Amino acid sequence: MPELQQPLENLLNTFNELNPSTVEELFAEPSPLEFMRYVARNTPFVVRGGASTWKATKKWDSAYLRTALEGQSVNVAVTPFGNADAPTFSPEHNATVISKPHEETQQFDDFFTYIIQQETDPAFPLDSEVRYAQTQNDNLRDEYLPLYPDAQRDIPFARIALGKEPDAINLWIGNSRSTTALHKDNFENIFVQIVGRKHFVLLPPLFHACVNEDLVLPATYVRQGEGFALAVDPDSPLVPLATWDPDEPERNATPLSALARPLRVTLEPGDMLYLPAMWYHKVKQSCPDGGEGFVLAINYW
Amino acid sequence: MPELQQPLENLLNTFNELNPSTVEELFAEPSPLEFMRYVARNTPFVVRGGASTWKATKKWDSAYLRTALEGQSVNVAVTPFGNADAPTFSPEHNATVISKPHEETQQFDDFFTYIIQQETDPAFPLDSEVRYAQTQNDNLRDEYLPLYPDAQRDIPFARIALGKEPDAINLWIGNSRSTTALHKDNFENIFVQIVGRKHFVLLPPLFHACVNEDLVLPATYVRQGEGFALAVDPDSPLVPLATWDPDEPERNATPLSALARPLRVTLEPGDMLYLPAMWYHKVKQSCPDGGEGFVLAINYW
Fold first, then answer.
1. Which of B1, B33, B163 sits opposite A3 (nearest CB)?
2. Which H, E and C letters describe chain A, residue by residue?
3. What's A19's domain CATH number?
4. How sure is the predictor about B7, in pLDDT bands with cuts at 50, 70 and 90?
5. Scanning every residue of chain A, which has its alpha carbon at the shortest distance from the alpha carbon of B43?
6. Whose CB has fewer CB within 10 Å in chain B, the N or C terminal residue?
7. How many domains does chain A have?
8. pLDDT tens figures, B62-119
């Protein structure tokens, strides 16, 4: 739609001029009313140290987690490259698909040993598969129930402001090999970092024209010999997927992608992020030197 | 842009399906947090009787107003048809212009007698000019200061929620001959009806494609003999104006105007309306039988 490009350019440039290029930092939790002002403005913020007094932040090291979850089996998302739900070129289909992970049940201890060794053992094969506990089905109140008492039941300022309990509380356990590709969710989202770091790249909903959303086939990884194949989901409709990556801005760009000015924020243990509904976000992870080699976060939505 | 019409139709139809066709009614003022939820959802509401205990609502009849404002002169907007700031066809320019009122200073008593007689005296000439006290320059704390103690300094739920005092408090005094044409403002707005009725027609910002916004010349009425002429403002840029009227939906329609489903709400004395920023609104007025023949409201923004 070339006749639309100039007004869209003006709109995005104006937005960039009027809005800050960093995520606002608070150093204490907002009141419900203050929070609601951010919701009304559809604006993210980070509370530095907002969860620093949680039991989870203080107690969850690898020994504690292994003891608390002894004998538990957990759902694990497995991919060859840490590319769950990402745009992936499938040579077999000669098309970009959204690559859904292979999901399997593993003993927590085996899964946890694997991600830590992959992160910390220099001899671990570089091309080894990537595992990520990332079921977003309220898992902290299900598979990881033994850990639930160490976290909060909810985020009080959000519960009071929105007038409802969280729909789901999800635990995310992985290592630096997993990346969550740029996407958006239809929920108000509070992310709480417990162990390691998460690196968020954020883009407001207005920048839709920059992310090159395309309708793609959904395909799921299946184990095949030592590796993986992508099997297109039978009878599944095409799904919309952002195919532009803010970390590779030249690839898959639209004429307007150059106007995107993503906000970047890193969560350290104890930090909270308010991620407004419908904001695009890409999430990377890292383990600081001297850490135990895993990354753990909780989100409420 | 014909290729945009189908997605816009889908968007507007979906909005209509998911949203109520009436303005939500409350029967007590919301808390600041409840108010902020409406702001966040960009959704209007009316508080029936929210200002019924105000001194203004109880005391402001014509005798009281004449006494309180004795000797005051006030700014009056004068138009031939009650069409201040409306799209008006100017035969002289062979174009639709936005017709700004002639403004003049009148003794309050003279102005007030005029609008009441025009409303109530069957012998009053039908083609007589229309007068409306509608300066939106914080007039309740200026020209009408003697009345200010009878109104509230602010709307507490809005002041606390938005974290600021009102920028302006405006008094509006007129009769059923004045109509405010469909337009939008960049302010959160609380309307409080004191005397008579205001009939609001509301349309969410999303319905931009229905209101046939056009760039028009601004022109101002000037007295000419017994009547008026429209003089184009010198050196003024064209201004955007909604040229579609929800009460005459066939005229000046766009291909999408038929999808507009305006919300209609009538304010009775003591009612409050929250009108979110950027919502289109058209406002008519009426004087119930047995009333004194004027309409008076206050708005806070």
1. B1
2. CHHHHHHHHHHHHHHHHHCCCCCEEECCCCCHHHHHHHHHHCCCEEECCCCCCCHHHHHCCHHHHHHHCCCCEEEEEEECCCCCCEEEEECCCCEEEEEECEEEEEEHHHHHHHHHHHHHCCCCCCCCCEEEECCCCCHHHCCCHHHHHHCCCCCHHHHHHHCCCCCCEEEEEECCCCCEEEECCCCCEEEEEEECEEEEEEECHHHHHHCCEEEEEEEEEEEECCEEEEEECCCCCCEEEECCCCCCCCCCCCCCHHHCCCEEEEECCCCEEEECCCCEEEEEEECCCCCCCCEEEEEEC
3. 2.60.120.10
4. confident
5. A40
6. N
7. 1
8. 999 999 999 999 999 999 999 999 999 998 889 999 999 999 999 999 999 999 999 9
Q: Which of A1, A4, A36 is opposite residue B36, by nearest beta carbon?
A: A36
pLDDT in tens, B143-200: 999 999 999 999 999 999 999 999 999 999 999 999 999 999 999 999 999 999 999 9
Nearest neighbour of A36 by CB, restricted to B1, B4, B40: B40
Using an 8 Å CB-CB cutoff, list residues of chain B that contact chain A: 1, 3-4, 32-33, 36-37, 39-40, 160-163
Domain residue limits at A23: 1-300
Q: What is the pLDDT of residues A87-98, one digit of tens each?
A: 999 988 899 999
Alpha-carbon distance A269 to nearest alpha carbon in chain B (angstroms): 30
**A31 min Cα distance to partner chain B (Å):** 10
Query: Taking CA atoms, what residue in B is nearest to A160?
Result: B33
